[in-house]
Sequence to fold (786 residues):
Amino acid sequence: MEEQLTQVKKASLELATLSLQQRNQALQSIASELEASRVELIEANQQDLDAGKSSLSQAMYSRLVFDDSKIDNLIAGIADIREMKDPIGEVTLQRELKPGLELKRVSTPIGVIAIVFESRPDVAVQIGSLLLKSGNAGVLKGGSEARHTLQAIESVVARATSRHDFVPANWLSFIQTREDVSELLAYEKYIDLVIPRGSNQLVQSIMSRTKIPVLGHADGICHIYLDEDYDQKEALEIVSNSKLQSPGTCNALETLLIHQLRFDDFKKALAQHSPEIELIEKPKSWSIEYGSAQLAIKSVESLSSAIDHINTYGSHHTDAILTQNSSHQERFLAEVDSGNVFVNCSTRHSDGFRYGFGAEIGISTSKIHARGPVGLEGLVSYKYQLRGKAHLV
Amino acid sequence: MEEQLTQVKKASLELATLSLQQRNQALQSIASELEASRVELIEANQQDLDAGKSSLSQAMYSRLVFDDSKIDNLIAGIADIREMKDPIGEVTLQRELKPGLELKRVSTPIGVIAIVFESRPDVAVQIGSLLLKSGNAGVLKGGSEARHTLQAIESVVARATSRHDFVPANWLSFIQTREDVSELLAYEKYIDLVIPRGSNQLVQSIMSRTKIPVLGHADGICHIYLDEDYDQKEALEIVSNSKLQSPGTCNALETLLIHQLRFDDFKKALAQHSPEIELIEKPKSWSIEYGSAQLAIKSVESLSSAIDHINTYGSHHTDAILTQNSSHQERFLAEVDSGNVFVNCSTRHSDGFRYGFGAEIGISTSKIHARGPVGLEGLVSYKYQLRGKAHLV
Fold:
């Protein structure tokens, strides 16, 4: 593995010097090669589907499907990524330190980024395209149930980019086994950033095993605090949308905090409005991500208690207040220590696409580097360039 | 320790809500209290100096001194920090996602930052002031040889800020022993960032023991590549300044790469120009930070070999090229993978003060979060605020 990573590291240094035009050309080739390789890709995927038919859950099986419509989406996604503004080479600071001594801060690729993802094999193309756009080399590890599909994707991408002399071989490298991941996580010398995309268990297991910076989030324990004054009908709609619109996603609601004066009444109304929600008044813990129609509810005596609860038991992902009281709105936005803090809307808005970032790399609950939904700009670093005329100190 | 860190974490949430005016008031009180406590501070320092007289090296002893002129500098430094623009509450992105659904990205404090430093006790005041300005709580650990001075500083700062109801107690907490540091480094739950300031050994030992993000650099293995065409006299001045002006600092030159066609000649000229530099042609390793007048030198056959050498053996801190060839300048700036890349000037310019950032938190060789010299903006994160009118997904 060290030999493989040395190659990727070397490729990253070359990739960092490509022009926007070169990177966009290579992206275009990936799109064309996907188009030309539909049969190959779908046949490979069929092998994985056949092998997984009896062993995979229905949800996993459907995520594994890589069909024409997935390929259409990927090709459209690459067109979007080509349109995006160049994240590299942006001058974010410029000043003359002394006469003739010019300082610039310029955005650069990060280097080598490892992505470990589960199930959906199309993620490999999506992420690969974002890495290429931002001049980063990558090491990808997908789910073993998608083995054949991923091998086909690997060879499609390699064929596409090898058509351009300027794209270094090995810029996108694949690893296969869990043991490979363990080994990879020890190589902080070659890997600059790890992005896990998958279940809490996956993310937590990666975070606990590496000193390489990790971009991501383990839990999405999202809250709504329903204040004293907010319209009941609107509150019912927002709570129901936040919990039920897609219960398995990280920005779905897990705990509803209700002002004590309306707790009983709202609980009853919610049970009528959304009978499919299973209300839990005495959860085993206030830090559970149900990922289902279950919803923990609690009566709180004030805004302060709600904020305390969220900062104590939450996962700093996405939390919302429903209130007309503008000083309560501002306190909540300022005091809740989460990457996404909302007023009077569904927690489900917390998403890179909805924020207008285009493709999303992931959602980070760290406060270092990138926080919240992370788009292309989470894949860049910067360097200081200083141009002088024999200046001494 | 967990109890102490819980308190600091709690304080960080309160501190994050202070206005700029409140933070500046508290800074002013620290300056006034330093002024009023000169005798107390200098007496405490005298105890440390007496205790260290026989055991400390001269360099360590002189760094330990905390006298009137150090206090003057600190008071002037606090005045500068008060003048700085508020790093918190800056809106760095604003857009309407749907009619009435307003997204803002706002800069926020990071939370709790631990700083582990060696020797110079005045660092505690400097760092404490930067933390306060940026709304961050802190845990500080200084050198044990400065024990009495640090205790006096702790009590001066606590007296000063406790005068303001709005400043939470425990916002700046001190720990004492190496064992405390080890314990601290395991509490990623309470500490958002660790900044080590001191020797390579200190930094490396901290980086190897924690999963908390670390801002800093272990080695400063800085290079100059002298190209074929650059003026000899200017090159001698720049090399000499980079190596000798302050050999112990991280931005001092450690390895000089010379184009093969002028290697012998330049070596001879350098020996005459700066006889105090000890030239080393066969170093044990190309990754040594001498921190002294020793300088590794090597003949390279081209710009590409120089760049390869630097990317392979350097520490990604600060590297310079001396050349009039503008395409060589641009290739060096683009291809050398370091936080600071220079053309035709001394490596010693790599410094937050010289870059105009005001007080420097440290220099980072990581590519995640902050890179290069880090000022106040390295102490901030951000959050997304979304204000809606009952918007659903």
